[in-house]
Each structure stands twice: as C-alpha cells, then as structure tokens.
Amino acid sequence: MAANDRAALVTGAGKNIGRACVLGLAEDGFNVAINGSSDRDACESVAKEAASFGVKTLVVMGDVGKPDECRRIADEAIKAFGAVDALLNNAALRPNKPFLEMTDAEWQRVIDVDMNAAVWLSRACLPGMVKKGWGRIVNFAGMNAIHGHAGRAPVSVAKHGVWGLTKALAMEFGPKGITANTISPGPIVPDAPEKNASAQARQQTVAKVPLGRMGTPTEVAAAARLLVSEGGAYINGQMIQVNGGAET
Length: 248
Known about the structure:
The protein has eight helices and seven strands, in the order E-H-E-H-E-H-E-H-E-H-H-E-H-H-E. By secondary structure, it is an alpha/beta fold. The protein has a seven-stranded parallel β-sheet, with helices on both faces. Helix 1 (16-27) packs parallel to helix 2.
C-alpha cells in the first residue's frame, strides 16, 4: 500500500537526484509518476526499480519547458493516481554560455525549464492538493544559482525565481495544509560522472566542502523524503542546503 494512498510526481527523474527521489519516495510507499524529456529507457528503468517496493508507477514523458506539456504530464499523473500529492520540480537545464553570447531564445528556454515549469506544474497539481487539504511541493535550486555563476546567468535568475515562488506558495497555501520548500544541493556526484571532468577540477570542488567529499543523489533525496513526510509537516517556506557545509 502507498503512504495513505498518496502519489508523487518527479520531473527530471531518469537519473541522478530525480532518480534517487523516485526510489526514496517509492520506498516510503508513494506511488510515483516519473517524468523525463527524452530518455524513456532510463525512466522505464527507474520505474522498474521503484515498482520493486510494491507501489504503482507511471512513466510520463514530456517537455516541462512547455505549458501545455506540463498540463498533460500532470493530468496523466492525476488520472493514474487520483491526485498528485507531492510535486518535486527537479528538471533543469544548466548551459554554460557567456551572457553576451546567449540568444533570447536560449535565455527563455532556460527560464521556462528551470522556473516556469515549477509554476505550470504547481498550478496543475495544487487544486487536487487543496481539495484534499494536504500537499507537498519541493523545488530545487543549487549553490551555483544562489551564488551566481559566470556563464550561467539564466540558471541563477531562474533558480532565484523558484526560491521566490517557494516562499509565496508557502504563505498562500500553508493555511490549506500544503507546504512548499526548496532544496539547494551542493556538489553532487552524478550517477555517471562526466568523462571530461578532470581530477584537478574535482579536487578543487571537494576542497570547498568541509566534509571533504562530494555528496550523493541519495543524500539529497533524503531531504526530499523528509519534506514530503508527516514528520516534515511543520517545515514550510524553507531552503534546505544539502552541501556538506560548503560556504553559502
């Protein structure tokens, strides 16, 4: 049985933090809708892993950078499970391009995927949460976004916007039994480390972390599991830093 027959929708769920969140929520008893934009095989693999916990799963592919697609993704999850009780807006683009070289279309694309998707999906899922008087929205930021990062201006702008959205939703929907929070991961080891990442670059990254290592997707997912749990019911409008103590 799912946790009180509740369901979660996780975007960008085919790998890394999204995958870890799906598996963690499935272990906690949530039915899970797994969204990805292109790699269906990866999403199907995650669904198979999640189903091993005895929950229902749904793979719903789609581009969260488009409002109509967000509505369709949410509608398919709601149709399958009756409602989306926990929405985890994890999908993101992180292009690295000089500010003066980025086109308007490239800028808008990042804003749509990294920020507007959280708006569109929240709009689609919140009515069901309000009806139940229970819901969880978890958005994702990141240290580069919070600090600012040369070559990633639209990412920083979008993630600051997501943090603002989180605080606004927490205030507006808290009285209705719905919490909204943001997780800001620090340096995280991906499921498949980048081939081009040099040992020196990794050492420089780790040197900034007091714990002396990079984190794992599972450690980020642990924060998400808390936020969507009954034990996390009094955490609202917060940004949780999962970064090993790296300076923020």
